[in-house]
């Protein structure tokens, strides 16, 4: 049976792909879960409309992410930490701490969006990447100061 994918499905393909699968797999799994629908002349027209909507949605999401990225570059976050000898921190600065500080400034970012190569374990100024929807990367300046 030929079906058209409504969403990206790792084992089969991407949105809009027309694939050939076994009848039972299509009827019992793909179609009831709205992962795919049967490829008919009418459904091909529907596919074109869904592709347009999908591209519009992605473009809108990317514009919003780019706007947020420029806003993030203007923001700097200050995190106060307890310090021991040689200005080493007790513990480290986590992505949750950065997310909480951004939330206080009115920017809602989840901790899993914040990408830190290594844990921050010393005082100083750091630039941290924030992964936004639409493959946009924002940068936040983080100041780690003594408490």
CATH architectural name of the largest domain: Roll
How many strands, what sense, and barrel or not for the largest sheet? 4 strands, mixed
> What is the string of SSEs from the N terminus onward?
EEHEHEEHEEEE
Strand count:
9
Approximate strand percentage: 25-35%
Task: From the alpha carbons, calculate the radius of gyration and give it in angstroms.
Answer: 23 Å
**End-to-end Cα distance:** 66 Å
The number of domains is 2
Instruction: Write out the strand line-up for the largest beta sheet, numbering strands in chain order.
Output: 4-9-8-6
Question: What class, by secondary structure content?
Answer: alpha+beta
Q: Which fold name corresponds to the CATH topology of the largest domain? A: Ribosomal Protein L9, domain 2
**Helix content, binned percent:** 25-40%
Give the mean pLDDT: 90
Principal-axes shape call: elongated
Q: What's the CATH C level of the largest domain?
A: Alpha Beta
